[in-house]
Amino acid sequence: MSLRTSIAGVAALAAQALAVELTTFGFPDCANGPLKDNLVCDGSASPRDRAAALVNELTLEEKFNNTGNTSPGVPRLGIPAYQWWNEALHGVAFTLPGKPMTDSGNFSYATSFPQPILMGAAFDDELIYDVASVISTEARAFSNGGRSGLDYWTPNINPYKDPRWGRGQETPGEDPFHLASYVQNLIRGLEGDQGDPYKKIVATCKHFTGYDIENWNGNFRYQFDAQISMQDMVEYYMPPFQACAREAKVGAFMCSYNAVNGVPTCADPWLLQTVLREHWGWDQEDQWVVGDCDAIQNVYLPHEWAATREQAVADTLKAGTDLNCGTYYPKYLPGAYEQGLINDTDLNRALTRTYASLVKLGYFDSAEDQPYRQIGWSDVNTQHAQELALKAAREGIVLLKNDGLLPLSLDAISSIALIGSWANATEQMQGNYYGIPPYLHSPLYAAQQLGVTVNYAEGTSQDNPTTDDWGAEYDAAAKSDVIIVVGGIDNDVESEGLDRLALAWSGPQLDMITRLASYGKPVVVVQMGAGQLDSTPLVANANISALLWAGYPGQDGGVALFDVITGVAPPAGRLPITQYPARYTSQIPMTDMSLRPSASSPGRTYKWYNGTAVFPFGFGLHYTNFSAEVTAGPDGQSFAIADLIASCSSNQTTTTPKLDLCPFTALSVAITNTGPLPSSDFVALAFLTGSFGPAPHPRASLVAYQRLHDVALNATAPSVATLNLTLGSLARVDESGDKVLYPGDYAVVVDVPEAPLARVEFRLTGEEEGVVIERWPRLDEGSRVGEGVVNVPEGYYEGGFGSRNGGDDGVGQGQEVLGVGS
Amino acid sequence: MSLRTSIAGVAALAAQALAVELTTFGFPDCANGPLKDNLVCDGSASPRDRAAALVNELTLEEKFNNTGNTSPGVPRLGIPAYQWWNEALHGVAFTLPGKPMTDSGNFSYATSFPQPILMGAAFDDELIYDVASVISTEARAFSNGGRSGLDYWTPNINPYKDPRWGRGQETPGEDPFHLASYVQNLIRGLEGDQGDPYKKIVATCKHFTGYDIENWNGNFRYQFDAQISMQDMVEYYMPPFQACAREAKVGAFMCSYNAVNGVPTCADPWLLQTVLREHWGWDQEDQWVVGDCDAIQNVYLPHEWAATREQAVADTLKAGTDLNCGTYYPKYLPGAYEQGLINDTDLNRALTRTYASLVKLGYFDSAEDQPYRQIGWSDVNTQHAQELALKAAREGIVLLKNDGLLPLSLDAISSIALIGSWANATEQMQGNYYGIPPYLHSPLYAAQQLGVTVNYAEGTSQDNPTTDDWGAEYDAAAKSDVIIVVGGIDNDVESEGLDRLALAWSGPQLDMITRLASYGKPVVVVQMGAGQLDSTPLVANANISALLWAGYPGQDGGVALFDVITGVAPPAGRLPITQYPARYTSQIPMTDMSLRPSASSPGRTYKWYNGTAVFPFGFGLHYTNFSAEVTAGPDGQSFAIADLIASCSSNQTTTTPKLDLCPFTALSVAITNTGPLPSSDFVALAFLTGSFGPAPHPRASLVAYQRLHDVALNATAPSVATLNLTLGSLARVDESGDKVLYPGDYAVVVDVPEAPLARVEFRLTGEEEGVVIERWPRLDEGSRVGEGVVNVPEGYYEGGFGSRNGGDDGVGQGQEVLGVGS
């Protein structure tokens, strides 16, 4: 069979290629099996000791065989085959060799939540915990049904730095604090509480690190070398991973395809040992690192890091990559061992980690004693799960423009024209990494439940050059009272392996929308997809009444959308990413990893972008009005940095205090719904601003958020958001990567800095050079191995144009050339 | 239904969108129908008068309705619906609303030839004529069977300037002389001889002009503005179109999506009237221009050339675009007419041209009198057609490396490992724009006919990150005597809408090949696909015995490939394109349309590239050796330019002599097969070199070629190639676009300049400034209309990085950044 599928199906391709007979999952029989007298079956021993005892039983060949994702197990010892590659990005999705769902009946579906980018827009950490809890419950049900494994390669927590990134949809957004907070709640939901005797499932924080490019302009993820300053690394790329490792103590990490500053991440002991395991204390024996699928092969080619395949597997294993998605380990570790490039210690360490992880999951213990082993098919797609999938979609949808048409009153109309490439979306609503859901309620389905006539036409899509279909969409519009266009982008233009090239609405889609808007009828436009389209022409068009963004809303996405449009669920989502002008793509190459603006870059994210966003990060309108008042906080106060640190240190009991986590203050912000709506959610966002520390200064930094639910109109007891700030909230990162508290004038604004609802000011005092509250490991702390030369011609894999340092002249002149029509 | 197909399926998408009920084609009944007394039915009148009489009968509404590709006809007058959009790039392919083939039985298939890029590699004009004749015969059969139309939107004759171009596969290659010669033979085969009473079919030379980018880095074909100097335009972009118009007098042209120097081509009267119709004399009443699908819509958006949709259709109609693929004409011409932007003359001119074309096709004449109307299903897929499809594939395949393993002796082996993503290729072999063939003989099928054991494994492909499939390919290799890898690229990475990003073999594919090459067994690698991959690592690898390139070889591609490998059909194809080093993509952006090298460009094509090609244009090895001797030619002679022109002018009878076409000399080159093979084809290529005229000078220019068939070993009467040179062969193009003969020393070398077999030198004398033999129209000869402003924000459609003027700094530094592993 030929692999003639779209580039978007890379994961599926890999799944095909790696398909083996493994279609059911089982557990070893520790009661009566060959291992019953081995320590691994002794529930009273430590996971480390149990795993070590098992590994000690294995022959060399058995060890090598079990270093890849498709693990054959050890039949001799009654250890069944195990598939480490399971996915559950926003619901149980797939397990090699395919989806774990059956064709019908039990285990034929699982709840499909919105893509993380839309759940990120909810800014609701409790929601994330609830969603993750449902996912892990359903994952356990599939495991108990013999349909999937116990570890899942989720979440994707790389910050969504560039709107072109094809996998930005898999992330909660662009802000590192937001991601760090989100991911802690997610992992708690997936793995269970840290003190629990068993892990619910093992989550995998990926892709560590600096991974946010697919194939932009000849720069392929498999070979890209991300040039990242220590300042940007600590300030931007690392916080979600630090939260995974240090705070959430997640069970697994995945190193990425790309190199960082010259070293492929899976072969970088400084990254995997010095930073991850030592600096962040991610050092439990059951915590393991897996290489992204074929990333270890890529260390050989195209990275050309190792001179031989054996050297490549030796470099990665010794660096701390314990498991190989792929077969390079089982294939080439034997040769590496023979050549003396690895030894028993290297091999046993990796296997002990992965087997200890299975121990922590209860893999070797009897089912009866484990609550998670009692979960079954009846726990999948519960009423609660269904409601939660709908709630998550409702909460994420963002209102960007509204002239008063919304909430749409159904009393006044008898017909709706529902037009666009997403109007009848089903699988589209799931984005990528999806399984089979119980249902997919499209926008068309939802509209048809409203009791009005719905005139549907597909119209044109972002990747369709043709507006011309003899006008079904115009016919639909002509006979309807209201026109709703549900369009935008989908995985045809943003997906794994496929970065976007443009941020503008395509000519045909914009042509269709503006033509529809010229009918003199109310028009609502909904942009779907993760990457923002520059909606300037829609904002400027007075004939377009309302604009919403709805991401990839999952199994009940259509219903959620119409619940928001009609006011059943008033919108309160906030943009988790910046909506840049279309020209942004010609101002900075994707390969430029730097955040701060420079002569060759307008800067990245709301913190550093020096242009005017079409819609800023955090933006989101409501159907009602809100006011905010800070009822408790440090307004007007002054704090000595030395005092803050001393009081914090004394409150920490560990020998290595985490000063950045020390509480600084809690703001209490009373939020009042001033009408006209009787009730609406409201997301309280707190941004830190100020010119403390060295220039340049970020425009603002999100330091806290809380979603308030059902804020009632003029309630006598106002809803209060509690926004906790830590010393880390106040810190800046210096060029070494150290976090520093500087004296100066600080302010916290509530809501987006462009339209603040409240403001608090305070002062920190101390020495001008500031105080380091977290020292970042230096590159020479730990070592970098490897640096071989592969026998391909020098420069063979040189990448394309527009890479990081090449942006300067290419930009300004590029704009001139592409100016058209004048 | 959602348009969730790959971007490669753009044409198919458009086909869906435009689908109407039209599924059968018919002819008007001029004997008894309503028009029987109208002049259109009078076979003795001129096509122009007949068409004008019909147009005169039409109401305004009927006229507007019939300006789009899906023409409803005029039921009132007995004119049936007609679909102008038919495709036959390398065999009858599709006709809206889909493929014209039935599910089974009659008309269920048509012959599928190789993609033009492989037919171009044959350098065999007679072959091209023969192939085109079969295609037009089969097209007539489908037309007579009511399954397709009479005009076809083929050939794609834009020079294949950049190896990244996704549609380069549709063209014969990079050299303008080659394309001009090829296309004349093709059109004669498609349309019949120019003096014939009826056209066989109408061909359409596309895409006029400067179209050779799909979506590189934010520069989309629908909005790209190609900046082309007059010198490059005349020297490089125009020759194939000039040959179409002036020499072949093709029936139709298609203007392109892009703009050239600020003006969308479909809205450019200088291009469509001054150059095409006036300068080239393409002025017959039955010759029409169609806009590429939705290109007229694109004049409005995203080109923003016209301020309103009505202005867009007016600008294009008045510029000379007669037919609209799409519906902008039928939809917006009425408004344009009402607003006075067009008048009856504009509208009637367009319709008269398209209807006159149908007259020339015999559409209105009785079937009995027309030989083409007698063609039927029995004329499809004849033995001749089958043999020709095989022959075309055999002739195109190029041998790039051979250590003596090939031709492969089957006597010495008992088993072959056949490995790779193309090893069992079926539809892949057709590339794009294909129909349903009678069969698809894959390489695997062909190998299985050889009487040896074939061990097949798919292995990895160019877009598959995973090498790891537990080693089926290594198992196959281990138990075989010879390893043949058939891999490379396909429409997953190069296709309509999808330009390539890299020229290197992917890491996994290269890894697999080099691993297979370490087995100590003979290895043959076949690169499939149009765009060349930099094969430097394969050339340098002594364990790889042979390397071939086989493009997209069509229905019998597998058989052709093994015929070449085993010596049944010794290879004689020549690369029709340069194989650049992989780093080429980082040295010049696709958007740079200039040919000559500069500070920011290494130059383009074998004429101007200042680096060292991996394999040069024209390269191709044989299994035997050849010598060449020039037996007649101008060696050592001197010619006065004035004399050459005077003698030529006097031999031309027209009032506007085409001096560039005047014969200069014919070289006779005797080709001797010196063994060891008893017989082999040989392509005689003649390149002009010399430093005449202004610097910089091209390295060489192809001026003639001829394929000799079956050159026998040491034949007593050697095969003689006759290589005709014209004055145009000697001319240079100046900055105004004028063709000039300069005094100086000239040489013609036979075979690639890197390894010439023979050389002839001569001198031209005259004034230093030279003599213009073809004056190019100036931009102010004719006018450019339009230049409106569309109501979208300024710069909204600004394109991406790396556009033409932006290449400078981006290149050198980009290389450094992407250097890996050190």
From TrEMBL, chains A, B:
Keyword Calcium: no
A biological process term (GO) from this entry: arabinan catabolic process
Compositional bias ranges of the Gly residues kind: 801-813
Glycoside hydrolase family 3 C-terminal domain boundaries: 397-623
InterPro entries registered for this protein in UniProt: BXL, GH, Glyco_hydro_3_C, Glyco_hydro_3_C_sf, Glyco_hydro_3_N, Glyco_hydro_3_N_sf, Ig-like_fold
Known EC number: 3.2.1.37
Highest taxon of source: Eukaryota
Localization (cell): Secreted
Catalysis: reaction(s): Hydrolysis of (1->4)-beta-D-xylans, to remove successive D-xylose residues from the non-reducing termini
UniProt keyword list: Carbohydrate metabolism, Glycoprotein, Glycosidase, Hydrolase, Polysaccharide degradation, Secreted, Signal, Xylan degradation
Pathway: Glycan degradation; xylan degradation
GO cellular component: extracellular region
First-listed, main subcellular location of the protein, grouped into a coarse class: secreted
Example of a GO MF term: alpha-L-arabinofuranosidase activity
EC category name: hydrolase
Segments for region (Disordered): 801-822
UniProt signal peptide: 1-19
Start and end residues of each Glycoside hydrolase family 3 N-terminal domain: 107-353
Keyword presence, Calcium: no
PANTHER family in the record: BETA-D-XYLOSIDASE 5-RELATED (PTHR42721:SF3), SUGAR HYDROLASE-RELATED (PTHR42721)
Similarity field: Belongs to the glycosyl hydrolase 3 family.
Stated name of the protein: xylan 1,4-beta-xylosidase
Organism annotation: Diplodia corticola
